[in-house]
Specification:
Ubiquitin-like (UB roll); nine-stranded mixed sheet; Rossmann fold; elongated; alpha/beta; three-stranded mixed sheet
């Protein structure tokens, strides 16, 4: 009896192993599974399955349905997908069912540039301080940047300068703060990099100056909202200047 039980166990193991080998050899023959795209930050939809299929087809120089598994380089696919403007990171794997599993981390836009030049289309600034093009399939609801200084951002290396990096820090600070993200809807940038904030509530223009000391300036703006507005009213002032040290100048 023990011999028969052992024989059955060995037979079942051999059958299982044969099935695994069969599936593996089948996957080497051609790609017949599904492409499963997983987006880690689903608040944005800059990347979809069709984009990924197109990128993989470009990498293999043929239709995906005719590609054999053994000819698919997962590292090459990862590298190709990472080259896409809106992708921050990508991991690719495959399973025994013939599926291609692609996990994608999208870049996080924190501001949209409204370019005054009609020959260009503007773009986004990512949380890492990189320029991103506009997307045909998705528009992110982020802080708007306007003014003559937008050309400085789009054309030069401003975002890589010390002032530009501080500017990106300011944009990230606003993006991560629920109150300021809701209240500050647009920022005008002049040719020297000085900022004017346009709030969601209240008609005042906020003269902010350069992005340096942005936390101190925002603290002063908070004082304006909490202490001055309740006594003077929303319509008393048209401009608020935060550029002067230890002062809030209203006019």
């Amino acid at each position: 009896m023990k011999l028969k039980s052992a024989s059955k166990a060995i037979l079942l193991f051999v059958l299982f192993l044969s099935a695994v080998v069969f599936v593996y050899l089948r996957t080497l023959d051609k790609f017949y599974g599904e492409i499963v795209v997983q987006l880690e930050n689903e608040n944005y939809s800059f990347v979809d399955k069709l984009d990924v299929i197109h990128l993989i087809s470009e990498e293999s120089n043929t239709q995906l349905s005719s590609v054999r598994w053994q000819d698919l380089s997962l590292r090459s696919i990862e590298k190709k997908v990472k080259s896409y403007n809106f992708v921050s990171n990508c991991e690719v794997a495959r399973d025994l069912k013939g599926n291609l599993l692609i996990s994608i981390q999208q870049k996080h836009p924190i501001a949209r540039i409204l370019d005054r030049n009609a020959t260009r289309k503007g773009g986004y600034i990512s949380a890492e301080g990189k320029l991103l093009p506009l997307s045909k399939q998705f528009t992110a609801r982020v802080l708007l940047l306007s003014g003559k200084g937008t050309s400085l951002i789009l054309n030069g290396n401003f975002l890589r300068t010390p002032k530009g990096k501080t500017f990106v820090e300011f944009l990230n600070y606003v993006d991560k703060n629920p109150f300021w993200k809701a209240q500050i809807t647009q920022v005008e940038v002049d040719k020297k990099g000085r900022l004017t904030l346009l709030p969601q509530v209240g008609g005042q223009k906020i003269q902010f100056g350069e992005a340096g000391n942005y936390q101190v300036k925002l603290q002063k703006l908070e004082i304006f909202y909490n202490q001055i507005i309740p006594t003077k009213g929303w319509n008393r002032y048209k401009q608020v200047n935060l550029e002067f040290e230890d002062q809030i100048v209203c006019s």
